[in-house]
Amino acid sequence: MTSSPDHLPTMARSSLSDRLAPYGPILILVLLVVFGFLAIPSMSSWLTLTVSGLAMGMMIFIMASGLTLVFGLMDVINFGHGAFVSVGAFVGVSFLLLLQHMTGAPSLLLNLTALLVAIIGAMLATGIMGWAFERVIVKPVYGAHLKQILVTMGGLIVVEQLIIVLWGPEEIYITRPEALKGAITFAGAALEKYRLVAVGIGLVIFLLMRWILRHTKIGLIVRAGVENGEMVEALGYRLRLVFVGVFMAGSALAGLGGVLWGLYQEVITAHMGNEVMILIFIVVIIGGLGSVEGCFIGALLVGLLQNYVAFLEPKVALISNIGLMVAILMWRPMGMIPVVKAK
Amino acid sequence: MLTKLLSGDTPRSPVLAVLLIGILVCLALAPFLFPGVRSVDTAARICIFIVLVASYDLMLGYGGIVSFAHTMFFGIGAYGVALACTHLGRGFDALLVGSVAGALVAATLAFVIGLFSLRVRAIFFAMITLAVASAVAVLVSQLSAITGGEDGLNYRIPRELTPAFKFADGQILGARLNGKLLNYYLIFGSTLLIFLLLLRIVHSPFGRVLQAIRENDFRAEAIGYRVVYYRVAVTCISAAAAALAGSLYAIWLRYVGPDTTLSLEIMIDVLLMVVIGGMGTMYGAVIGATIFVLAQNYLQALMSVASDALTGLPVLPELISADRWLLWLGVLFILSVYFFPTGIVGRLRQRRR
User: Fold this and answer.
1) Domain count, chain B
2) Which chain regions cross the lipid bilayer (chain B) (predicted)?
3) Cβ burial B110-126 (10 Å sphere, 16+ → b, else e)
4) How large is the ipTM?
């Protein structure tokens, strides 16, 4: 009769920090909001700032999501992503200017239709442009990061200059559609209507994207491709086609973001893509390259922090994003939700 | 002796050798060969950009690291001299203090950025430098109490370096013997010195390791070189050299402002010079900078003439007006990355084999 060994395996619960680790990014977001609540003296201004931070974050997310997926899927880093933002804004605004009779009317339905037309137009234009960009600029330099960075940067310059040729060098001022002007008052806080719309659109896009990635076949292929592209190709899927599709979708989203951003700033310039690009990079880096969720949380962090800090200490706001990036990279060097294994 | 001075890196192509000697002679005798304010100014710009581009090439062509903050380091050097001249008074000590401080600050900043980004992936560096450079540019234009904001700073450099100082009467071959001449030779001499120093670094064992890392970082790590250390070190050296170029620029111009030292446009110019001249060869920097600065100064005028000649046609004059200079640079840039990745120097050396 043999007795069972003394050292029974023990089922220890993993430590609290280990269990919390996956939720870390969301916890930071919550902490930031709470911090804002404590630091900002009046409740109403906190609410206003939070909404505008969320709106800004959502717009950055829309623009950045394509970039992060493109990188995750094909290891392609596109420094020309900002070009799509600019083109989207210019095409969208041209549509809005054409549809002035609709945007000028005080009816919410007509306004939203005009906005929708502008968005669809901009997304189509940037989607097609994304296809061309992928074909002409990105395709010849697969697998060579250095050349990718150089060539896509060149592409950005060319597109920026072409915008100036087509639309002229002056900045274009635009007014928001009639029904989206002004603010509504909620709990004593003035919330700009347009920002609420931007938050709504951003949320819809995020949820839609999440649904596509998690519950459809194509989403499965994309996620698998990010995880291990060679294996997916070995299983018979033509990842290149999927990649072109993702690139076009990402470009179209950047175009959508461009329209929203243009209306948010109420002025568009050929260099706006370049300026937004910097925010996009920060978001993509702190989110973790290739991760849509990380990108979403990162974008909200950047938006909220920028608004809070601008209210509390305007001079510091210029470098708050860099500070955030440094802090996150010290905590997790690969970004908050690292997806792409070092290839 | 000469081979030793060039650290064993002879041009290895007769055409290239002739070109390089031609450029050296022209730059060395520029005030006498091409008298006139504008041409001497062009020569000084070529010298300064040779240093800037060579330092960038050290990072890009030898280290395989793309940085978009090179103009930031350039600007740090320039503002270093400007601030030192403003606060320490007029004198050579101020120039020296400013240059050294600028180089140190640039190297420190490069060290910090490098530590954060290079330990993960080299491409992080490109994105982070872009973000940091833009933040610094905004800071400089906002902190107008220190930096003069958008207007920049005007300051006084030692009298011996200004046109007001005459060390001898008369002219030699049309060149006035004044402080501006001394200033030019200060810049020319420093350029030559820094360039030879960079050449020395590239051909040292350190440079060899860098090239190994550029070709295959994984293998270099496996052989036992700490890739991160080498990458961070090369960014620091490169940043310091860029800051010195900035200091020279500040001494020459007697003015610094965000547009002349920090703008992204200069960054793009530098990228183009490196690519046209040839990545991974120090001589590429010389050729690239010379051709580019000359083209910038004289081709833009040509473009506006062509544009005026075509007025009346749709779009076309708009496309080739001098303001669209950047458009064609961008196109040229993309084409040269595709078709001449080794640049002019690479092509010339290849043909001989």
Assistant:
1) 1
2) 15-34, 46-74, 94-116, 123-146, 182-202, 228-252, 272-294, 301-320, 326-348
3) beebbebbbebbbbbbb
4) 0.81
